[in-house]
Design goal:
It is a single chain. The chain is mainly α. Helices cover 71% and strands 0% of the residues. It contains 11 helices and no strands. It has helices at 5-12, 20-43, 46-62, 64-68, 73-85, 106-112, 116-127, 132-139, 143-160, 168-180, 190-227. α3 packs across α5 (73-85), α7 (116-127) packs across α10 (168-180) and α8 (132-139) crosses α9. The radius of gyration is 23 Å and the shape is globular. The termini are far apart. The model is unreliable at 200-224 (pLDDT under 50).
């Protein structure tokens, strides 16, 4: 008997260790529905939310050795999903020229009217309950900047929804309710997400190989012409 009982249990545990595929599938099933709902709150676009979360999980599978040992794998995926969702280049897409109907909830309307960095911090801190320092780390911003964004976000929401004035707890409660009132989206299978990521890697590899070969041919031709 060793001095570490937990080690003895692990040594005699008959359950097989999870494969990378199994571990990814567990994370996907646990986190994807809630993340889809969060991205809908962040952007006001439900269909887009599915696309964003699938993209984030593609990245997670491509970087699985890193994600598997991360202290917060859900946070890893969430950070990539929020980054992708708020990327300004999406505004150039034709689908984004069609306005979505305004949400009925006044707090959500006020949230969607905020600048993207304020919206993100408000959702992370008051919606998900992250601390300012945790939100700062996730958004790669300073603690002071994150605290300032959160303060401005709260002030703007309270200005838009006057009944929340002087009641920060109620604002937090309503944002938490918005986040918790979801997470039941029907999602594609984890396997299809994994295989989609693998196809994307193969396609990217082929594209890089073709571009490399083309560049080599151009360099060779240029050198030949120059030498004449």
């Amino acid at each position: 008997m060793s001095e570490d009982p937990a080690q003895d249990v692990r040594a005699t545990d008959p359950r097989p260790a999870l494969t990378p595929e199994d571990a990814f599938d567990v994370l996907y099933a646990w986190a994807a529905p809630g993340l889809i709902h969060q991205i809908r709150l962040l952007t006001g676009r439900r269909g887009f939310a599915f696309e964003v979360v699938e993209h984030a999980f593609h990245l997670a599978w491509e970087h699985w050795p890193e994600v598997a040992v991360d202290n917060d794998p859900v946070g890893w995926v969430r950070a990539r999903a929020y980054d992708h969702a708020l990327s300004p280049w999406h505004r150039l897409r034709p689908a984004f020229r069609r306005a979505e109907p305004a949400p009925a909830d006044p707090v959500l309307r006020a949230l969607l009217d905020l600048p993207a960095p304020y919206r993100r911090v408000a959702l992370l801190c008051d919606g998900l309950g992250l601390s300012v320092s945790q939100a700062a780390a996730e958004t790669e911003a300073s603690t002071a900047a994150t605290r300032n964004r959160l303060h401005r976000a709260r002030s703007a929401v309270i200005e838009a929804v006057p009944e929340l004035a002087d009641d920060l707890d109620e604002l937090r409660k309503q944002l938490r309710a918005l986040v918790n009132d979801g997470g039941t989206a029907t999602i594609p299978s984890a396997r299809s997400t994994r295989t989609g990521s693998e196809r994307r890697i193969r396609q990217l590899t082929r594209t890089v190989a073709v571009m490399t070969a083309t560049l080599a041919a151009v360099i060779t031709y240029t050198a030949f012409v120059t030498a004449r």
